[in-house]
C-alpha cells in the first residue's frame, strides 16, 4: 500500500515546492469612486502636492531626467504633458523643445493650472501654456502636438476610451504617446496600488493599441521599481 502511494506523495511535494507565478491582478471594472475629487477641490493647495511629489524619495522625481529622455523630444516639437500636476516636467520639456517648440501642461485641476502658469512665468518659460482639460477630453485642438506624455495619469482616466480618442486626435500622424504608470501585480504591488490603479501594464497596452496606437518600446529606467515606461506610436492619418 505504501508503495502505491509514493507517486502521489511525490506529486504533492513537487506541487508544494513549485515557485509561485507572479500574475497580473484582476483589475476592478472602473476606477475607484472619487479618484479625482481632491484635485478638483477649490481649496486644493498646490504647495502641499509639490512637497509630496517633488522629493527625492519619489522615484518619478528621482528619475525625472531619465524619464524626460525617454520621451525623445526634439527642438521645435510640441508636446502635451497631460495630468501635469504641479508641473514637474514643465521645465525639462521646455528646455528640450526650445523656443521654437511648445509645451502644453494639461490639467483637470483649476488650481494646478494656475500654479503651473505662475511657475512658468516665474521661471521664464515663455513656450509653456497651461490648459484646463476635462475628465473626458484634453481640450487640445486636433493635431496640436507631436507627443503626449502621461505620468501616473492613465489610471486616473474615468473614461479611458474617450480620453484615448482625445489623445489620438491631439497627436499628429506618426506622433508618440509615452505612458508612465504603476505596475499592478498580485502578490508584488503594494495594497495601495492594487486598490488605486485600475489596470495592469498588459491591459493598458491592449487598451491603448485598441485606441489607435502601436507599442514601439518598453523603456527600461533602472531607478524605477514601481513604475514602467511605454512608448507608443499613433497609427493612421
Protein architecture, described:
The chain has 237 residues and is α/β, with parallel strands linked by helices. It has one domain (24-234): Rossmann fold. It is 37% helix and 21% strand. The chain has helices spanning 2-17, 37-40, 46-53, 59-62, 64-71, 90-97, 110-122, 160-170, 191-196, 201-210; strands at residues 78-82, 102-107, 128-132, 145-151, 171-182, 213-218, 227-234. A seven-stranded mixed sheet has the order 3-2-1-4-5-7-6, sandwiched between helices.
Order of helices and strands: HHHHHEHEHEEHEHHEE
Widest sheet, order of strands: 3-2-1-4-5-7-6
Distance between the termini: 72 Å
CATH architecture: 3-Layer(aba) Sandwich
Annotation field: number of helices? 10
Q: What structural class should be given to the helix and strand makeup? A: alpha/beta
In the CATH hierarchy, what is the superfamily? Vaccinia Virus protein VP39
**Residue runs with pLDDT of under 50 for 5 or more positions:** 1-28
Rounded Rg: 21 Å
- Overall number of strands: 7
Major sheet details: 7 strands, mixed
The portion of residues assigned to helices is 25-40%
How would you describe the shape? globular
By CATH reckoning, the class would read Alpha Beta
* Amount of beta strand: 15-25%
CATH topology: Rossmann fold
Q: Please, what is the average pLDDT?
A: 90
Count of the separate structural domains:
1
